[in-house]
Amino acid sequence: MTATKDGFFKPAKVSAQAKADLTDSVARDILAAETAARKVKTEKLRALRLAQPIAETTGKTKKKR
């Protein structure tokens, strides 16, 4: 097959439905990746928080004016 300018500069028309499907798919992939990253970060922070020693609290928690 030989390369012609028609093959490079005249792409086939893409339907609106196909564009919408592609956009939806990409958006869902991005959201899934962000959700997974947030879940990993939350688990890591939870593990670090639980590994810390519990601080002893005195009777007073808030200062009164």
Q: How much of the residues is beta strand, in percent?
A: under 5%
Average pLDDT over all residues: 85
N/C terminus separation: 85 Å
Biggest sheet features: none
Q: Explain this structure to me?
A:
Helices cover 63% and strands 0% of the residues. It is built from two helices and no strands. The chain has helices at 5-9, 16-51.
SSE topology:
Elements: H1 5-9, H2 16-51
Compact overview of the structure:
The chain is mainly α. Helix content is 63%, strand content 0%.
What are the main properties of this structure?
65 residues, mainly alpha
